[in-house]
Amino acid sequence: MLRIYNTMTRRIEEFKPLKGNRVYMYVCGPTVYDYSHIGHARTYIAYDVIARYLRERGYSVFYLMNITDVDDKIIRRAGERGVNPIELAREYERYFMEDMDALGIQSVNLYARASEYIDEIVDLIKVLIDKGFAYETETGVYFDTSRFKDYGKLSHKRPEELLVHRIEPDPTKKNPADFALWKKRDKDEIGWDSPWGYGRPGWHIEDTAIILTHFGPQIDIHGGAIELTFPHHEAEIAQAEAATGKKPFVRYWCHTGLLTVGGEKMSKSLGNYILIRDIVKKHDPEALRLMFLFSHYRSPIDFKWSSLESSNSSLNSLYNMVERLREVEADEELSEEEKKLEDYYENFKKNFYSYLDDDLDTPRAVAELFKLASTINKILDSQERLYALLKFKLLSEIERISKIFGILEKKPTIEAGLLESVLEILIDVRGKLRIKGEFELADQIRDRLREIGIILEDIGYQTRWKLRR
RNA sequence: GCCCGGGUGGCCGAGCGGCUAGGCGGCGGGCUGCAGACCCGCUCUACAGGGGUUCAAAUCCCCUCCCGGGCUCCA
Known about the structure:
It is a single chain. It is built from 14 helices and 18 strands. The protein is α/β, with parallel strands linked by helices. The protein has three domains: 3-282, HUPs (Rossmann fold, 3-Layer(aba) Sandwich); 309-405, Four Helix Bundle (Hemerythrin (Met), subunit A) (Up-down Bundle), CATH 1.20.120; 413-469, no CATH class. The N and C termini lie far apart (60 Å). It binds one RNA strand of 75 nucleotides through helix 1, helix 6, strand 13, helix 9 and helix 11.
């Protein structure tokens, strides 16, 4: 039985989708006005693993993510650069996709751009006004939080707490807690026509419109980082439930812990802003994934380069084990030791999946994986061969795990550039043999290379190579 | 100020009433022409501090200290 923590109830609950084994899953995507940083990586890797696990568990998951391409920050940045905001958004969206690819995140079924849902957003706002949950002022259309009794239920805030605000509220609002559905703007800014005049959507409405369009009034999982709980997700509940009348809008609210660098939230002014693209240049993305798996998705993580390096070593040791297992010769006899390993393996499976079932407890599952690795290494140390069926079982299990975690997915391949370097080393060593007069060995190298299609030609003590046609 | 999370061994990080988590690093040993990988052992009875509850507390309760997040920009 799969159980998952629900921010709404603050409890771990049994996971039961609305419609059989179909899972509607939505995660708040990025605002594309800058390169993505490791905080994004943390969040999206966490949901990638959740989606992968649900699928491995037999659920048919539709994973939907929005791309916020209409937003104040985008407009400001575009203004600074003198470019069109949508063009700027497309550019950073492309970088975002590249980063997701680099991190091995392919689990999202559909990315939805806010700008392509303006009609749906306008329709949704109309419904909210008609039902008396929203009102128009000279600056925009606002959601009337006093009309929605449940406002605050997700973030567990009392109504009086909602009156506290850091930013000066728009004076036309009835209540400081009310939030914008439509912002009226001048024609010189990017925007769209609406029944309330030219302008653009508020921050929270796009997600609700996209969800209602693709999934309808109720979904199974809605995710995002913990910082989005209030006001963003609170507002989404208000918009959706007020508009459709169906409760709950979301069956399981998931929130991932925040990532800090040097104990503080990343910011450019602090100089602790680490981009995904800078990490993957120097480090194995799988090491980053493993680093995140070492802690629970809801726990905060303080990023340290030393942790990433430590995870890289851990990853290497797992790869070594897998390689040894792949290469060991199979036989048909089951030894006493192998019997024990088989029992251990059955036990491992039980533990491993029960930990993942328990609110995706990857730290404990990963711990089990390392114990398994150590057990496999021991047996590979103690005997030359491995019982064929056992070898097969272990390898297929590891493959399944690698699919869930998105690690150990690289097959050892040599790309062309590397192959050339290897050839150069070989030619260099052969040259040294010739200088020493060890022609027999040098000729052997030349002959064996010729057999596989590589021709060596000596010109004095220089050697060049070409491929046989 | 109010509301949430946290503070665990050299480092990272689980556990959340009794049952050796795990990883990384270091040291010693085994294996090895050398290196690497791997195995064994040690570092490792650690849980911010102070009270309390309990047969039993890192885990529950109270107080204090420190850190992070939210309180309409945020993954």
